[in-house]
Amino acid sequence: MRLLKRSWLCLLLKLAIAVGSLSLVFLVSQLNTDWAPGFTHKYSWLEYTADVGGPEKGCNCSAILQGDWKALERAKILTITKDVRKSIQIPDDYYINATTDCRSFKLRRKYIMFPLSKEEEDFPLAFSIIVHHKVQNFERLLRAIYVPQNIYCVHVDKKSKASVSSAISAIASFFPNVFLVSQADNVVYAGWPRVQADLNCMADLYNASTKWKYFINLCGQDFPLKTNLEMVRMLRTLRGGNSLESESFPPEKKWRVSYVHQIINGEIQTTKETKDPPPFNLPIMSGSVYIVVSRSVRSVLKDHRIRALIEWSKDIYSPDEHLWATIQRVPGVPGSKWPNRKYDMSDLNTIARLVKWEAHEGSQNAIGAVYPECKGTHVRQICVYGAGDLQWLLEQNHLFANKFDVDTDPIAIFCLEKYLRQKALADWE
Fold this sequence. Notes:
The protein is built from 18 helices and 15 strands.
């Protein structure tokens, strides 16, 4: 009888996989399995495995995450071999062709299509993802954070190649809770359109669902450091508060808000025209584009003081690094902090994003260093993480880190996503 029941269970699972019914797979996983010990213990259909011949095949992720120097040296050598460099060059057309069969794509890519816990189901999150290239990075990010109870708005830069837009649109179309922003912009580095992209997604997310609790904005080269369950538990502890960088405005950046700036030929340029003081004498703060804010942020943006601040910020330099930081310190804003500098919050003391700036790196014994030296490479003075950074990253309290790039170090992303998936499934069990 026990053998017969086990055979029926196996048959159900095979049928679920064959027809692409993840709900049936979930049903099977919830059945009483005391007569089939170990059958659903590892949920093998959701585990990540290295593709045969892929760049990850020769690396030891467990050793890498523990900082083992031999494993890290082997990973470094692997990433520069000709076969690995060739294998990670995945054209946009690959995703366009791979998405012709929706069920097969989701099963093959091992997307989690059901809530892993009631706790997570009752605390949905909203994400905006700003993308302009590197479809592979985007898809791996989406897969790492995707669960059906959350909601995701994707903003593809209007300047992006047609193949990028087509591939991302095809991927998003597979999921009822993933959609493209209703109004896309030409994103300009250090210009207002970067903020507007998030505002557009924020509005769409607010109108699309009344259930989500927190909003988190991402870019295509971010990657999570926590599982969805860990994020939910950390966000619950905020009790409606926000978590983002907000510090007193440094004197050396005063020029950013003292002169009018214009976008000319796709670049932000400083003019000689001086700006009026901020509205309502609001103290302008310094921070980051990356934010973790409660759902009440949408109603905050209707506040007459905030509307005036938004209009005033449209022609400053890098408004994304000042608008949110300033809103966070406006008295009366839900989840905010008083503008007194005693309430200043650095990026290292928030949970929004972990970024390694080259100027703050140093050796372990350097007194002035904020964090250890980058083990990858640098782009615009920001560390693009390598496998050697993973041990340090996972010791931090942040939800996400920036930047990751498959072209720079595919093993760093693979080991991180494999670790997070194993942890998510272990928590589920």
